[in-house]
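Researcher: Going back to the complex we discussed earlier. I've cleaned up the inputs and rechecked each line, so this should be the final set. Can you rerun the prediction on the complete assembly and write out the structure?
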Amino acid sequence: MHRIWAIIERDLRRFRRSPVLVVVSIIMPLVQLLVLGYAFGGKIKNLHVGVVDQDHGMPAIKLKEMFQAVGANARTFDFTDYHDQAVALHDLRNGKINGLLNIPPEFSRKVLAGANPHIALVEDNSDQFSSSALEGAFTGILAPYNGPLVPPRMTANATLSVVEIYPYVPYIQYLLPGTIVLAIFVSAMIGGGIIFIDDKARGLHEGYLVTPIRKFELILGFTLSGAAKAIIAGVVLITVGSLIAGIPDPFNPLRMARMFLLVIVTALALISMMFLIMVRINDPLVPRAIFGMLNTVLYFPSGAVYPPESFPGWMKAIAIVDPFTYAVHGFKELVLKNTGLMAITGDLAFLTIFTLIAMGAATLLFRRTL
Amino acid sequence: MAAIEVENLTKRFGDFCAVDSLNFAVEPGEVFGLLGPNGAGKSTLIRMMTTLVPPTSGTARVNGFDIVRAANDVRQSIGVIPQAMTSDLDLTAQENMSIFAKLYGIPREKRLNTIRQLLKDVDLEKWADKPVKMFSGGMRRRLEIARGLVHEPKIFFLDEPTTGLDPVSRVAVWEMLSRLKRERDLTILITTHYMDEADKLCDRIAIVDHGKLVALDSPLKLKASIPGINVLEVSFASVPPAWTEKLSALPEVAEVKSEDNIFRISSQNGPKTTIALLEAARDAGVPVTSLSVQSTTLDDVFVHYTGHQMRDALQAPSAANSPFLMQRR
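Model: Rerun complete. Updated structure for the full complex:
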């Protein structure tokens, strides 16, 4: 036991002299949280839509007025009238407008005859987010336009009423759980198994390998000291991150306690995973080279930035074994829904079993000789 | 019981045989030198004896413990100063010592006393609380020597302890080792490629080359074992035919070796041979371009036994001088 403490003491004393590690592992995820949080997820506004009215009938004018009213109100889009469809298409291709609404000739006649009238939305679909915002807005407006002037006494249409059980979650809050896990991961990368590789590169390991320390004592020492550093990063993120993202009642003590537990379990899982990956590597350039890849492969499939339900099969397969997935899910429950521990029992269990397997494998693969 | 017994110890890395069936024994209280050029297998040998590298075949017992079967007992009884500097730059001298004392499980009270005493012994008392990154190479080496003794080992292994140190620091390390050995009743096994170091420090010297033991005796006896008591190193502007035979026939000459235009002549009587050599050169019309006469040194012993000069040895890369790659040797 005293040998494990000696390894932990050595690492933490070194860390205290140069705490750059924690600063780096905290700053990077916080910057990402801020930039990604504000870059995505905001409501799309001020799209430019051109209108070519080839009909000029009353129903067409009524339709245009409805669109204009909605556009002016929500500021989702504004209208420019075109007389020549060719000019409008030219402007669409040149990016002056984001979409083109075409009201064809005979539109009014077909409306009045009930003969399946059509209008066309020609859109610049190179930007999916803008085009789906336009589609959504236009489809929304058409429904009341199609509605009968006098409501029937009996309606056969079922309608969907949406009840939101949690307060509105802005994207920056949606991003926070992933960011907390990312901070723990960054600190696991630069404060975990890589320390042993750097020791090997500098020959420092010969110093302690000639002492009577045992394999598992060395691994446990490195894991615990690495986890301590990752926990510091995690704790800063659950507090500062909650403030930045504007989580309601950010310092709720019960939630903080649950989050702290999840930070510890996550830190141990990620540190032991990094130790396992690094256990046979001697060249200190290798971990630095694979960090970017690891980050991408683990962070994005976890559901930290986008719901995993949209992923292709191979990515879902990664998500199933990725400890990030469970950590992110756990933090989402705690941060966004303020649930109890029951809701994250599965996550805690997976991360704990993952830790045990990774550490066991690392101990088997670890070479105590040069 | 011998402090260290080595029996047919062999280490192969693939086709390369780094240590080839070595046999020797080190007596308690002895300072035993392993002498050889870089790449001769010294470090591999010391790493096997200190349990860092498993042997391919053969065995060794250190303090009576088998290096494979009782590795942890070996580790408990030895102090090791690896070739690379292994002290932590970010920690202070005191912290470096303290962490190692804890790795050996030394209780707190004893730990503090031992560390204080050892830092005093290596003249680093007043630097105890300074980070090691402020230390010179010599100070760092002295700290590592103190650290290696923190658990009061019986046997002390030092792998090229003075490589890379300036001459003053080297002498300081030698003096310290002699003193520590006297005071602490240590058995020391030291590898070096400095002849003067081996000559000054060691009771016995084993010369190792290409993984094989080529000579083993005290420095005095080794020097006496080779022919001649003086060595003439001489070079000529040109070399006439049968010149080596001519030189061998000079009075008191024991042996002549040549490499390019440089001749090394071992002689029982340096002055007499020198005069005869100069006369012979004048008679043959061969101008002498340089000439030196020295007493036999371990260098000559080394050349005699290995057939090449120490300084000709290729520098093998090592963990100590390559910051990024661990080189297996």
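Model: Worth noting: The radius of gyration of chain A is 29 Å.
Researcher: Good, that matches what I expected from the previous run.
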